[in-house]
Write a sequence for this structure.
């Protein structure tokens, strides 16, 4: 399969993603990796007909993506991941979907793609959808 | 499960009866774009990249001409199934080497549990498992007929 902009990015060349997009992809990859490593999930998926032999490739891609991110983002990411498992959560109707606290700001913050916004209540990285 | 009200059978924009691309990644992009235009996905580029990385974990071609690519992502607002057909068939890397003619793209929000996620993927997979159902889905001559068959298959 040909490499897309992100696939290329995780393989080494400059990352064409915003910091927020990188964090979202990292969180999604972490869920995918955890799922593929979990014996119960793994058994379910294999039974449905999905081979999972490429786990090491995904882990390597995940690590390269993390290394390409700004350190401030990775610190916030790893802190929240260590505490909750999932470090990036969507904001829906002004509500943090991690802790369900209503956020004070009515509007999506300007520059939300580049600025690091964490939930003041739980510390997860907020993804404004 | 919410897929009953969120299936392509209820949203014709999520049925693509004749996919034009010949390559897997282009098919994924077309299907994700349809979901984006239907308001299901916030960032289609990011989601396509996740789907492509998922394929590197292992092909989502389940054989007999069916592929069930899937992604759980914060870019997905609501669970949806996007259905596409390819007359030519697409090389999906399935173990039986059969090109995929029926592609069922399962999109899942990031806050869904493993169990719910696997349940939805299982529903999509089983919907196309029966040869008779699969053939009907491939032969449906109109979007409406395809939608009706999907509703029945997912019920």
């Amino acid at each position: 399969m040909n490499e897309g902009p992100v696939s290329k990015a995780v393989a080494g060349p400059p990352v064409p993603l915003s910091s927020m997009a990188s964090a979202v992809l990292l969180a999604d990859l972490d869920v995918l990796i955890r799922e593929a490593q979990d014996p119960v999930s793994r058994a379910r998926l294999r039974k449905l007909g999905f081979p999972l032999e490429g786990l090491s490739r995904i882990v390597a891609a995940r690590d390269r993506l993390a290394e390409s991110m700004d350190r401030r983002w990775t610190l916030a990411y790893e802190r929240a991941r260590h505490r909750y498992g999932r470090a990036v959560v969507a904001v829906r109707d002004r509500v943090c979907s991690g802790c369900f606290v209503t956020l004070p700001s009515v509007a999506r913050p300007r520059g939300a793609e580049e600025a690091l916004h964490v939930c003041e209540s739980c510390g997860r990285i907020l993804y404004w959808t | 499960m919410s897929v009953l009200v969120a299936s392509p059978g209820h949203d014709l924009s999520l049925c693509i009866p004749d996919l034009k691309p010949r390559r897997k990644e282009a098919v994924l992009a077309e299907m994700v774009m349809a979901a984006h235009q239907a308001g299901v996905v916030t960032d289609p580029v990011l989601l396509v990249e996740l789907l492509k990385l998922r394929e590197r974990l292992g092909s989502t071609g389940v054989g007999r001409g069916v592929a069930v690519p899937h992604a759980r992502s914060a870019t997905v607002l609501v669970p949806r199934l996007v259905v596409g057909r390819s007359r030519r068939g697409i090389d999906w890397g399935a173990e039986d080497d059969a090109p995929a003619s029926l592609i069922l793209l399962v999109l899942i929000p990031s806050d869904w549990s493993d169990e719910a996620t696997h349940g939805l993927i299982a529903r999509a997979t089983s919907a196309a498992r029966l040869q008779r159902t699969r053939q009907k889905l491939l032969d449906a001559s109109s979007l409406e007929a395809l939608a009706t068959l999907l509703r029945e298959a997912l019920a």
